[in-house]
Structure formats: C-alpha cells, structure tokens
TrEMBL record:
A GO molecular-function annotation: acyltransferase activity
Top class in the EC scheme: transferase
UniProt KW keywords: Acyltransferase, Transferase
EC numbers for this chain: 2.3.1.-
Protein name: GNAT family N-acetyltransferase
SUPFAM superfamilies, per the entry: Acyl-CoA N-acyltransferases (Nat)
Record's keyword annotation contains RNA-binding: no
Domain N-acetyltransferase: 1-159
Amino acid sequence: MEIRKFKKADTKAVVDIWNEVVKQGVAFPQKDLLDEKEGYIFFSSQSYTGIAVCDGQIVGLYILHPNNVGHCGHICNASYAVKTDQRGKHIGKQLVQDCMCQAKRLGFRILQFNAVVATNAAALHLYQELGFVPLGVIPSGFALDDGTYEDIIVHYKTL
C-alpha cells in the first residue's frame, strides 16, 4: 500500500469514502455530504490530505490541519476515513502513522483528536496502541442521528 498526497483526480473516490463515514453518523462531526466541487475545495485546502492506494484503488484518506491558531498553532488535528469494505486491514494504522510524519514535517508538535466517540472501539484501540494519551471524557459530546448522545474522548500525542 502507498500513502501519497491528494490530487484533483482523486476527488470522486475520496468524496465517496468521506461521505460513507458521514452517512454512518457515528464518527465525524459533519452532517452534510460533499459533492465533487465542494470535496475538491475541502481536501485541497487542508494542510495535507493523504490518500491510501492499494492495487490502484483508493481505500482510505486523512486530512491534517491546525487545531487552533497563534499560540496554539503548533497543535494539529486530523480525521481518517477507510472505505467500508477495506476496514480491518490495518489501513487506518498506516494512515495515522503517515499523518504523524507529515504533521512533524509541517512543523506541528502535537496531534490532538477533539472528539473520538467512546463507542468507536477500533479507533480507541489504535490510538492506545500508537501511544496517544486520553485527556478526558466529554459526556454526551456526540449527537447521534436518532437523538441519543455518546461520550467523546479527547486524545493527544507529542510528535
């Protein structure tokens, strides 16, 4: 598998994967789906968008951007998406590892996740394995589409 920088030709495949996660409604804060025009603008405006390619097929991605500005501008944030039928193949781990390398290369010193949903066992396991520190729980921080709420856990890792 190769992880490389996003390019315009990736837009449709990347938008499709991103929208899969948004539609599932259990991980990303976004509710609105992207079309190709919005997607190209969104993915090309990040500090870095990484694309996972396996056997010529785009199977996952991440976006990396500042978490804040000014005195906190050295802290970055990221989101990861793996195509539903490709999950369980350790693609997410490779995306996070590449993201940490790119973040460091771009001058970030800390990678922070603001809202890891407490029921996202795969993400929680991965972040623990990679040495992320859970900072605390925000009770009912994530609104599910059915009107219920899940806790979210803030994490960070020094790069």
